[in-house]
Design a protein that fits this description.
Catalytic activity: (2R)-O-phospho-3-sulfolactate + H2O = (2R)-3-sulfolactate + phosphate
Organism: Spirosoma sordidisoli
Structural class: alpha/beta
Helix content: 25-40%
Family: Belongs to the ComB family.
GO molecular function: 2-phosphosulfolactate phosphatase activity; magnesium ion binding; sulfopyruvate decarboxylase activity
Largest sheet: 5 strands, parallel
Order of helices and strands: EEHEHEEEHEHEHEHHHHEE
Pfam families: 2-ph_phosp
């Protein structure tokens, strides 16, 4: 039987097996939710990079550029880290370069996997349906917050496990923990996460609407996948 594992933060990635595995990267608040939204609204490619300097280099080549640090847009870049920014007509058919505090770093660290997918609650069902057709083990890589574990990405991992529990065996205790947390909180995720650290950060910025939006399930039938150095929308 195939196995599904959860890496709770990229700082623990060296303890997990990436080779011969499909990695699903989750940065629910807000990088991977932005990426999924962008592809749903017609973006052509997204190049995830780890540093602001790399993002500037892509910007100089004519890419729209998104840079976020500590939940704020970096000066000099066109796009921020709110999914509502990616509902604009300007992104249709565009090539975007993106760097974020946690999510893009997690993607760049996963390049040795068989496939790297972008996951969020927004495309949960699409990711689950695709994985059921694949012969490989799966690891959910939670982007976390600056090397620390966070609740929202762990809950996404648990939600994906819940969709796949009849097709995959749970590999490690981290997968069991994630699944149990999701089962405890799934009836009211917004309330369940009320005291989570990143919820508090975003609320201080006055963007409750981003929180509510990113916790919605199954809005989009799109699965971004890393091809070379760019994310593209997989044909479903």
């Amino acid at each position: 039987m195939k196995h599904i594992d959860v890496c709770l933060t990229p700082d623990l990635l060296h303890l997990h097996t990436v080779e011969n595995t499909i990695v699903v990267v989750a940065d629910v608040f807000r990088a991977t939710s932005c990426m999924v939204t962008a592809f749903a609204y017609g973006v052509k490619t997204i190049v995830p990079v780890a540093t602001i300097e790399e993002c500037q280099q892509w910007q100089e080549r004519g890419y729209l550029a998104a840079a976020e640090r500590n939940a704020h847009r970096v000066d000099g870049f066109e796009l921020d880290n709110s999914p509502f920014t990616y509902m604009d007509e300007q992104i249709r058919g565009a090539n975007v370069a993106m760097t974020t505090t946690n999510g893009t770093l997690a993607i760049t660290k996963s390049r040795s996997a068989v496939k790297v997918l972008v996951g969020s609650f927004l495309n949960l069902d699409a990711v689950a349906r695709f994985l059921k057709t694949e012969p490989y083990d799966v690891m959910v890589l939670c982007a976390g917050w600056k090397g620390r574990v966070n609740l929202e990405d762990t809950l996404f991992a648990g939600a994906l496990i819940d969709r796949l529990k009849d097709s995959y065996a749970l590999a490690e205790d981290s997968a069991i923990v994630a699944h149990r947390l999701y089962c405890d909180g799934k009836e009211n995720l917004v309330g369940y996460m009320a005291n989570a650290s990143h919820i508090r950060r975003l609320q201080r910025l006055g963007i409750q609407k981003d929180i509510t939006y990113c916790l919605q399930h199954d809005l989009y039938d799109v699965v971004p996948v890393l091809r070379g150095n760019a994310l593209v929308a997989m044909e479903m």
